[in-house]
Amino acid sequence: MKTRISTEWLSGCSGCHVAVVDLHEKLLNLLDDVEFVRIPVLMDEKGYPEADVGLVEGAIRSEHDRKALLRMRETCKTLVAFGTCAVYGGPSGIGWLYEKDSILNKIYKDTVTASADGKLPDGAPELEQSVTPLNEVVDIDFYIPGCPPHPYFIALALKTLLGASVPAISIKTVCSACNRRMAKREGVILQRGMSTAPEEDICLLSQGVICLGSVTLDRCQAQCPNKGVACAGCSGPSMDLIIEPHLDIRTMIARRMSLLTGIDRSKIQKYIEKEAKTFYSYAISSSVIYKKPTVEIRNWAGN
Ligand code: SF4
Ligand code: SF4
Ligand code: SF4
């Protein structure tokens, strides 16, 4: 009998669903064993059929999102938070920094592109006050972070859920898969807003560029630094960052970069605080981050 899979997208960009389609021939192989009973990217199914596995993309931002998530929990035996928005709030979690009304006013009243009468369009969903990751509302059985999740890890997870042996899920950071080497460098300047550096085989931190690879779970095989671009942390915090309340992105990165380059640690910390919306963007609305005693994102971001 085929495993029945149901998917839903909440507030996100639908990129996680596109990543399922990106499985290419692996998806065709899977179709021998699974039946998609609901998948908005491929079929028009408004109901919530009973399913063995549910994949939910996106965070909760509206009344509609909350109801849809509850329906998915009711109808799916195993529920998966699929993608960084579902696990940590993701990029749309930036809304956690602002009052709901200030966001609505910005879009519909205070800008040149606002609607003529300043009203919400008909049928617009009722927004909740903030952005909420899924596990704050229902029990989640599995988490697949990534923005979007890498096809390798989607295939691995689906294989597991289809009853094959349980794979050893690595808790290593992006650095573990990065081909660059950390090395001490002198006379390095902190690069603001830069995402790449000239030496191809040397760690970006050693070259003054802030790379979040050492504080990010490897769910992507280090695809950014291996192609020359700093890791932006899209797979979410590393396991030590999640488990240890006193560890924080800015202190860990500042310490490491200062050791490699001699740049003053407080200068690096202050820069990361000033750009908190960028460096904390993927998990800003997750209690894993904002409840840390040393994290004051709202202050840093001036909200
Ligand atoms: S995790 Fe990334 S790809 Fe997936 S819905 Fe959120 S923003 Fe889009
Ligand atoms: S910090 Fe970035 S560039 Fe340096 S080793 Fe880690 S992933 Fe690679
Ligand atoms: S290297 Fe970092 S930003 Fe790039 S895909 Fe991996 S986790 Fe995301």
State the main characteristics.
about 300 residues, alpha/beta, Rossmann fold, 2 domains, 5-stranded parallel β-sheet, two-stranded antiparallel ribbon, 7 strands, globular, binds iron/sulfur cluster
The CATH class of the largest domain, by name, is Alpha Beta
- Assign a percent range to the helix content: 25-40%
Structural class designation: alpha/beta
Largest sheet: 5 strands, parallel
The oligomerization state is single chain
Q: What is the name of the CATH topology of the largest domain?
A: Rossmann fold
Question: Which percent range describes the beta-strand content?
Answer: 5-15%
Number of domains: 2
CATH superfamily of the largest domain: NADH:ubiquinone oxidoreductase-like, 20kDa subunit
| Distance between the ends | 53 Å
* Averaged pLDDT: 92
Low-confidence runs (pLDDT<50, min 5 residues)? Answer: none
Instruction: Order the strands across the largest sheet as they lie in space.
Output: 2-1-3-5-7
- One letter per element, helices H and strands E, the order comes to EHHEEEHEHHEEHHHHHHH
How many helices? The count is: 12
Small ligands present = iron/sulfur cluster
Strand tally? 7
The best one-word shape is globular
Which architecture of the largest domain per CATH?
3-Layer(aba) Sandwich
- The gyration radius over C-alpha positions equals 21 Å
